[in-house]
Amino acid sequence: MTITRRHLCSLIAAAAASTCLPEFAQAQAAFPDKPMKLLVPYAAGGGTDAIARLVAQGVGERLGQSLVVENNGSAGGNLATAQAASAAPDGYTVLMANQGPMVVNPHLFKNVRVDPLTAFDPLTLISAAPLVVVVAPTSPHKTLAELVGHAQKNPGKLTYGSAGNGSASHLATILLAQTAQFEAVHVPYRGAGPALTDLLAGNSDFMITTVPSVLGLIEGGKVRALAVTGKARAKLFPEVPSVSESGWPDYEATAWYGFVVPKGTPKDIAARLRQATVETINSPLIRERLQNEGAEPIGNRPEEFAAMMDAESRRWVGIIKQARLAIN
Predict the structure, then answer these.
(1) CA 79 to CA 42: how far, in whole Å?
(2) 300 vs 26, which has greater pLDDT?
(3) Mean pLDDT across the chain
């Protein structure tokens, strides 16, 4: 039989492919064979960071490799999100996702180049939690009604901190201002930790923040809790009323946290990451610790997480447009 040059090239290509495929399959089967990275789009010390580190430890233990937390709170979390989106889809980069970078920032920032809802494959929703309105213990305001009343009488004179532009704390305050009809000046930080530090120093008047980021301060009497943002009172401090029962029954805001990976991550690798995450969430110790942080453990399916993020995106775009928010 005569072998043409074209036929020979085809044979060589087929042989190369047959050699590479087992190596690729072997690499997937060996996952993970080195430490993985968990990008957190906020500074250390806040609620997102606390839950990320708690779950990362359990995931690493189950997979036999460390899931190393890396914080980057720049640009409201946009830089960390872009960094994760451009990472190799090999399972070694995971993004801690919440509503700020995932569903708010694309509508809030003018220069967001990544569409998070299409740039990532969701793994699972880890947990959701209400937020809490807090003031320094030296504040004259003992109730949310007193704080809102003062803000209404002094438009634009009160300041509030947040974990960053587009963060849950920022948008929850925007929603409260719209609902209760008052104006206040926003001061964004690179995480809840720095914002709370300035609140305690008297550099801002109030803050809405996640329960995990402020629970210790509330228990230690270093901040005063005025209201929680869920429809019901929080189990951790049942004496604190909700915003709804404080006079604004239509108000509700929650913070949520989940894991996503770059689009195109092999399904079996994504499945292993998700399984390790869900097992961690459902372990008695981690469930108890999440609940002690005021967060409700979830661990849903990827398609459920995707549908929730899509619904959240559609909800917040209307709130952002009504507030006429835009950040360059």
Answers:
(1) 10
(2) 300
(3) 90
Q: What is the DSSP string of 223-241?
A: SEEEEESSSS--TT-TTSP
Orientation angle between helical segments 211-219 and 192-200, nearest 10 degrees: 30
The strand pairing partners of 193, in sequence order, are: none
Per the document, the length of the chain is: 328
Burial classification of residue 247, based on how many CB atoms lie within 10 Å of its CB (0-12 exposed, 13-18 middle, 19 or more buried) = middle
Residue 99 in contact with residue 171, Cβ under 8 Å? Answer: yes
Is residue 309 predicted with pLDDT exceeding 60? Answer: yes
CB-based contact 277:59 (threshold 8 Å): yes
Residue type, 311: A
What is the predicted pLDDT for the residue at 8?
A: 45
Q: What are phi and psi of 163, to 5 degrees?
A: -75, -5
- What is the per-residue burial (b if ≥16 Cβ within 10 Å, else e) of 69-79? bebbbebbbbe
Distance, CA of 54 to CA of 47 (rounded, Å): 11
CA-CA-CA-CA torsion for 144, 148, 154, 158, nearest 10 degrees? 60
Report the pLDDT value the prediction gives residue 43, as an integer from 0 to 100.
85
> Would you place residue 17 in the very low, low, confident or very high pLDDT band (cuts 50, 70, 90)?
very low
Please tell me what DSSP assigns to residue 327. Answer: B
pLDDT tens for each residue of 34-49: 999 999 998 888 888 9
- Give CA separation, 100 vs 40, 75, 302, in Å: 12, 11, 19
